[in-house]
Amino acid sequence: MPWNIESHLSHCCSARVLSSFDGVLFLYRCSSCGAEASGPSPAVLCACGATVGATCRDAGLRCAPNPVRSVDRPAEIEVVALSRYKTMELRRGKLNV
Ligand SMILES: [Zn+2]
Ligand SMILES: [Zn+2]
Questions:
Q1: Number of structural domains the chain divides into
Q2: Ligand 2 center from residue 23 Cα (angstroms)
Q3: Which one-letter DSSP state was computed for residue 8?
Q4: What pLDDT does 24 receive?
Q5: How confident is the model at residue 64 (pLDDT cuts 50, 70, 90)?
Q6: Residue 94 reports pLDDT greater than 80
Q7: Which of 30, 47, 71, 89 is positioned for an S-S bond with 35, CB 3.0–4.6 A?
């Protein structure tokens, strides 16, 4: 199966999440440790779906494109706090609140 590179980072390794579609299910795989999960979106494996505590409260993390790539921060995708993510999406005109 061919793998696509998702714009998401795994919550296990903060490595890029890969995805593959077998015709029925999407399978997501951590490009670093190989952890796998299947589900409707990369959130089953990436930081967007990370939860805390027994109540599985949203950890408030989201994967987002790095707006200012530099030598210090070369990553294409970063994990950011939800509040910052919303600010970035607003700036890019992708969120209407
Ligand atoms: Zn991993
Ligand atoms: Zn994500």
A1: 1
A2: 22
A3: E
A4: 86
A5: very high
A6: no
A7: 30
Split at pLDDT 50, 70, 90, the class of 71 is very high
- Give percent of the chain above pLDDT 90: 77
Q: Sign (positive/negative) of CA torsion 74, 76, 77, 81?
A: positive
Q: In angstroms, what is the span from residue 37 Cα to ligand 2's centroid? A: 13
Q: Which residues span the domain enclosing 38?
A: 1-97
The identity of residue 77, as a single letter, is I
Question: Which ligand is nearest to the Cα of residue 19, counting in written order?
Answer: 2
Residue 72, classed as helix, strand or coil, is coil
CA 70 to ligand 1 center in whole angstroms: 25
Confirm if 17 and 10 have CB atoms less than 8 A apart: yes
